[in-house]
């Protein structure tokens, strides 16, 4: 290497090895430059290999090759630079391609010349015409530029670039583009969410709704599921709950969508149902979201958000979450404020609940659960009444008012009556003498509660089995190949039968394999 030769010359000239202890090949500018060149060549080679996978996806009409390309983007995006992206675009796009002008304005690098590089490329840019570039490779490189702009936090430039890309992509009706198009729409929404003003967030709804209609007509499952999730997120960010509910009512979420999209859809649906006071449905959706979400470090944020909302929903339902949830390594630290909240609600102390809410108000607002937690005040009071109904066979309304720190005995009477009507406690209320008398506790196994719990578990197991069957992958058009082979075998058998009947072939022939 040039750097090593320079260092050896300096060492001979100085003649003292101790003076050169701090000079190494790693710290020399020549070595750093050569390492950067090797890294850029490796990135270009990896991206070029993805071109081959995209060509195989188009030739075989198999989306699994495209998914492999998208998975590699997570590692390649950390090594992308403007110079590397510009070099790849120069070698890939023909000189007369119409998308070069927009890419040149975004990257700020001239792209109208083809550089001479020794790295082997699978695509010969000089031999391509303006219309011979695969649309999948075109959109893939646009997606790489889109991701690089997001990593550089150039939100305004990225939003404008994504808007042009989405409009251009809507004219391409190719099923092999579905997975790439879904990713483009995802980053299109992310750019507009990152802008300081919420005007852009509302302005993209028309484009997303039009793209959803087009994807539904084309039976584009990936894009359809992605846009539905993005629209729900968009409506929730601007607190348009009624519009989100209308979208869920009129747009059917595809059953064959990926698990990560289904988990996000269930989470947003659970949040909508929780705001609409439908806590039982919200609990079911949130449980589905936590079970379908990947239990890996990359999805830790989503798992934490879903469990936080689910804990609040369980408390609103009158249930106490299991303690094992707060002991998981991924959830232990983020759920500490919610553990204090559960303790306050479980013991039914209104002062402890209010102090917990005031202490962790910033965390609850950041998680988007603050307004739901404020509804828990009535649940804390109901829990306190339930604890008193268990501890006392008869207690006056005045004592209930003092223990729960209510304003008046009329408020205590109203709360106790509502708790009896909702089935929270089994008691009788004497309005004339002003006391509550508890009934004798019945055996829970004499009720339908165990049967209902058993039914819920069986229902979940059957649903999980059905989803696993639907998620099984089979080779595309394999049944047609089997039918074709069976038909050819039957035709050969008929020909053999005819030859035997006509006397042209005997059964003792050596090459006869049988009918």
Automatic annotation (TrEMBL):
Keywords: Proteasome
Region feature Disordered, mapped onto this chain: 492-515
Pfam family for this entry, one: TPR_PSMD3_N
GO cellular component, one term: proteasome regulatory particle, lid subcomplex
Ranges of biased composition (kind: Acidic residues): 505-515
SUPFAM superfamilies the record matches: Winged helix' DNA-binding domain
Protein name (Swiss-Prot/TrEMBL): PCI domain-containing protein
